[in-house]
Amino acid sequence: MQRVREAEREIVFNEYSKYEDELVTGTIERQDTRFVYVSLDKVEAVMGVRDQMPNEVYRPQSRIKVYVSKVENATKGPQVFVSRTEPGMLKRLFEQEVPEIYDGTVEIVSIAREAGDRAKVSVRTNNADIDPVGTAVGPKGQRVQTIVNELNGENMDIVEWDDDDARYIANALNPAEVVDVIFDPDNERACTVIVPDYQLSLAIGKRGQNARLAAKLTGFKIDIKSESEAAAEMNSATEEFNDNGADVDSDNETLNETDTDSTNEE
């Protein structure tokens, strides 16, 4: 009997392990302080607190779309972990809504997400006749709006990936306008981004969110400065350099006078 139960558990595990990294639809059973329990036919999946959207209410017996993040073969049977906050869920939703993403014509390169609030998605294509951003957004924004609705109003920024890091970083900071991107010579994954003074707040975003998501999307540490701030720092550096240069000249003059006096004494 024990072997029969083990064989049954193995069959169920093999069946549900195929759904790992995929979207499935289940029925909410109940919720406690740790998990939301979702029925997926033969198994009961669990959704931890970090995998729950902060602006969602989970009502028993309601249907819900979830992302299968992990399947474990536990002693008491398969344990399925699901999520609504994983970047993988957003990728699968785009594959469902955008045929060109599903078939690989348009590729999702990176996703940065603060679930329930805002996400940035970078896309690219090798087809010169296709606008990857417009394709993902859809006519009149219909495709991306369907995804926004599924995620209860999570805002989406779709930006074009670029193999030029400066252009990619500028795209990632959309909707802000970028004047210049200056890379740190001591850290190849860090940069300073210069924006117009009136765009500084927009570039940084509410509670720093726009800059934070752009950094996560591109993999760069991003320091944002206004044009006036950058100009002031440049002027200060120039003055300091000139002052140091004057000090060196004074030292040289003193040294020359000393040498001359020594020569005269001889």
UniProtKB/TrEMBL annotation:
<feature type="domain" description="S1 motif">
    <location>
        <begin position="19"/>
        <end position="85"/>
    </location>
</feature>
<dbReference type="InterPro" id="IPR025249">
    <property type="entry name" value="TF_NusA_KH_1st"/>
</dbReference>
<dbReference type="InterPro" id="IPR015946">
    <property type="entry name" value="KH_dom-like_a/b"/>
</dbReference>
<dbReference type="Pfam" id="PF13184">
    <property type="entry name" value="KH_NusA_1st"/>
</dbReference>
<feature type="region of interest" description="Disordered">
    <location>
        <begin position="231"/>
        <end position="266"/>
    </location>
</feature>
<dbReference type="InterPro" id="IPR010213">
    <property type="entry name" value="TF_NusA"/>
</dbReference>
<feature type="compositionally biased region" description="Acidic residues">
    <location>
        <begin position="240"/>
        <end position="266"/>
    </location>
</feature>
<dbReference type="GO" id="GO:0031564">
    <property type="term" value="P:transcription antitermination"/>
</dbReference>
<dbReference type="InterPro" id="IPR003029">
    <property type="entry name" value="S1_domain"/>
</dbReference>
<dbReference type="InterPro" id="IPR058582">
    <property type="entry name" value="KH_NusA_2nd"/>
</dbReference>
<protein>
    <submittedName>
        <fullName>Transcription termination protein NusA</fullName>
    </submittedName>
</protein>
<keyword id="KW-0963">Cytoplasm</keyword>
<dbReference type="InterPro" id="IPR009019">
    <property type="entry name" value="KH_sf_prok-type"/>
</dbReference>
<keyword id="KW-0804">Transcription</keyword>
<keyword id="KW-0806">Transcription termination</keyword>
<dbReference type="Pfam" id="PF26594">
    <property type="entry name" value="KH_NusA_2nd"/>
</dbReference>
<dbReference type="InterPro" id="IPR030842">
    <property type="entry name" value="TF_NusA_bacterial"/>
</dbReference>
<keyword id="KW-0694">RNA-binding</keyword>
<keyword id="KW-0805">Transcription regulation</keyword>
<dbReference type="GO" id="GO:0005829">
    <property type="term" value="C:cytosol"/>
</dbReference>
<keyword id="KW-0889">Transcription antitermination</keyword>
<dbReference type="InterPro" id="IPR012340">
    <property type="entry name" value="NA-bd_OB-fold"/>
</dbReference>
<dbReference type="GO" id="GO:0003723">
    <property type="term" value="F:RNA binding"/>
</dbReference>
<dbReference type="GO" id="GO:0006353">
    <property type="term" value="P:DNA-templated transcription termination"/>
</dbReference>
